[in-house]
Amino acid sequence: MLESEIKYGQLSKRPDISVIDRNNLVYLIVECKASNVTLDQSVYDQTMTYASILKPKYLALTNGLEHMYFQFQPETMNFVSIEDIPCLL
Q: Which domain holds residue 46?
């Protein structure tokens, strides 16, 4: 699903890509930036805004040159950095 609108308080937000699993749950949110944009805390925070609503298992941030992946850890209620996203199949 590309750029589906979600509500965050009074604001409308649009994650770039949301991958839905067979149970119709959000498996992955991907935030795509231009190649000249650094994947910094502000990009992570933007993606976490979407994650707080959609509750994905995984997050991916990319600017086409650099890629960062995160997995939700229920025991700590946080996302942790991982090497890659597991296959959905």
A: 6-82
